[in-house]
C-alpha cells in the first residue's frame, strides 16, 4: 500500500498536491492547532506526519502512534519534538534549516531597526493624532550604524544577521555561542567572542538567536538584563522562554534598557500583559520566516524529507539520520 501521511497544519495546496503524488494524504485544514490527543487520533495508521513548530511530538504521542516512521517539520526550531524519544523508536525526525536563514535574518534586522528607531511607537503616536508640532528629541532613538551589534547564538541565522550589521551598517560585532567561530570567519566579520556577561555589557543592540531547550531556558533573566546598558535594545527572534518575559517587561517599564523587539513569547500566542503595557517594545506574532517564497520553501523541504524518509532514502535534513539503517 501507499504510505499514509497526515499534514497537521494548513499548508500550501500545491505542497499537499505534491505529497498526494506519493502518499495517501489526510490533512488538518484550519489554522486551529490540534491537541496532542487529537493528533494521536488522527495519526492512527499513519506512516509519516508533516508538522510545524507547534505540534507536541513527545514520548507519549510517539508511544500511542506505533505505525509512525517519520516526523517532518517545516520549522528550523524543533523544541516541540522529543528527538531522543523518536530515535529510541526508530522514527526519523527532520527540521527545515537553511531555507529560512536569510529571510529570518532580514526580519531580525528589521525588528532591531524598528526598535532602535521607535518605528511602531512613532506610528501609534501619529495614528492617535498626537503629532501637532516638531520637537527636537521627539521619538529620538538609538543609531544602528556604527553601534555595537551583540549576537547571542552564532548559528546560520546569527551569522546572517551579523553580515548585515557589519557589511551593511558598519557595526562592530561581539558574540557569544557555545563554540567559537573558526578564526577566519571571526576575522571576516571582525567578530569578538565574549562570555555571556561580557556580551550583555558590550552590546548596543543584542539579538538573540539561540535554540530553546533546558540549557537556554530563561538564559536572559533579571540578572542578565541588569548587565545591559540603559541605552541598549534586546531583540528576540529565537524562541519564547529563552528570555524571562516578566523580567523583561519590568526592565522595560523601569527603563533599565531602552527597548525590545520581540517576535516570540513564552506561552505564545499569549503575550505577557506587562509587555503589552509598555510603549518601548515592538511586538510581532512569530513571523520572522514569513515571506511567501520562504514559507513555501520550508513546506517543500519538509515534503522532500517525508518523501525520502518513507521511500528508503536519506532525508536531506534529518536530525537523527542514525535511525535509518535500523529500518
Ligand atoms: C520558526 O520559529 C522556526 O523554527 O522555523
Ligand atoms: C538556524 O538555522 C541557525 O542555526 O541559526
From TrEMBL:
It comes from the Bacteria. Residues 109-288 form the D-isomer specific 2-hydroxyacid dehydrogenase NAD-binding domain. Its EC number is 1.1.1.-. Keywords: Oxidoreductase. InterPro entries: D-isomer_2-hydroxyacid_DH, D-isomer_2_OHA_DH_cat_dom, D-isomer_DH_CS1, D-isomer_DH_NAD-bd, NAD(P)-bd_dom_sf. Residues 5-320 form the D-isomer specific 2-hydroxyacid dehydrogenase catalytic domain. GO terms for molecular function: oxidoreductase activity. Pfam families: 2-Hacid_dh, 2-Hacid_dh_C. SUPFAM superfamilies: Formate/glycerate dehydrogenase catalytic domain-like, NAD(P)-binding Rossmann-fold domains. Transmembrane segments: none annotated. Belongs to the D-isomer specific 2-hydroxyacid dehydrogenase family. This is D-glycerate dehydrogenase. It comes from Ideonella margarita.
Amino acid at each position: 500500500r501507499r504510505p499514509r501521511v497526515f499534514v497537521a497544519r494548513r499548508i500550501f495546496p500545491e505542497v499537499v498536491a505534491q505529497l498526494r503524488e506519493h502518499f495517501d494524504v489526510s490533512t488538518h485544514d484550519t489554522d486551529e492547532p490540534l491537541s496532542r490527543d487529537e493528533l494521536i487520533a488522527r495519526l492512527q495508521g499513519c506512516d509519516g506526519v508533516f508538522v510545524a513548530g507547534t505540534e507536541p511530538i513527545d514520548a507519549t504521542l510517539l508511544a500511542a502512534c506505533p505505525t509512525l516512521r517519520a516526523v517532518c517539520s517545516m520549522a528550523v526550531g524543533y523544541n516541540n519534538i522529543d528527538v531522543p524519544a523518536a530515535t529510541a523508536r526508530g522514527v526519523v525526525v527532520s527540521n527545515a534549516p537553511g531555507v529560512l536563514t536569510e529571510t529570518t535574518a532580514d526580519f531580525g534586522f528589521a525588528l532591531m531597526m524598528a526598535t532602535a528607531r521607535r518605528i511602531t511607537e512613532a506610528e501609534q503616536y501619529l495614528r492617535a493624532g498626537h503629532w501637532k508640532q516638531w520637537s527636537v528629541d521627539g521619538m529620538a532613538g538609538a543609531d544602528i550604524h556604527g553601534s555595537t551589534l551583540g549576537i547571542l547564538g552564532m548559528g546560520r541565522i546569527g551569522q546572517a544577521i551579523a553580515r548585515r550589521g557589519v557589511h551593511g551598517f558598519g557595526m562592530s560585532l561581539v558574540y557569544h555561542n557555545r563554540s567559537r567561530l573558526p578564526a577566519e570567519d571571526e576575522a571576516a566579520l571582525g567578530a569578538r567572542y565574549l562570555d555571556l556577561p561580557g556580551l550583555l555589557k558590550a552590546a548596543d543592540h543584542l539579538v538573540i538567536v539561540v535554540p530553546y531547550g533546558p540549557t537556554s531556558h530563561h538564559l536572559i533573566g533579571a540578572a542578565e538584563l541588569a548587565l545591559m546598558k540603559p541605552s541598549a535594545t534586546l531583540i528576540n527572534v529565537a524562541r519564547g522562554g529563552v528570555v524571562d518575559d516578566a523580567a523583561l517587561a519590568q526592565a522595560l517599564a523601569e527603563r533599565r534598557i531602552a527597548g525590545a523587539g520581540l517576535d516570540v513569547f513564552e506561552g505564545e500566542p499569549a503575550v505577557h500583559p506587562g509587555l503589552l503595557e509598555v510603549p518601548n517594545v515592538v511586538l510581532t506574532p512569530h513571523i520572522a520566516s514569513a515571506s511567501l517564497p520562504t514559507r513555501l520553501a520550508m513546506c517543500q523541504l519538509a515534503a522532500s524529507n517525508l518523501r525520502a524518509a518513507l521511500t528508503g532514502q536519506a532525508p536531506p535534513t534529518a536530525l537523527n539520520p542514525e535511525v535509518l539503517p535500523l529500518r
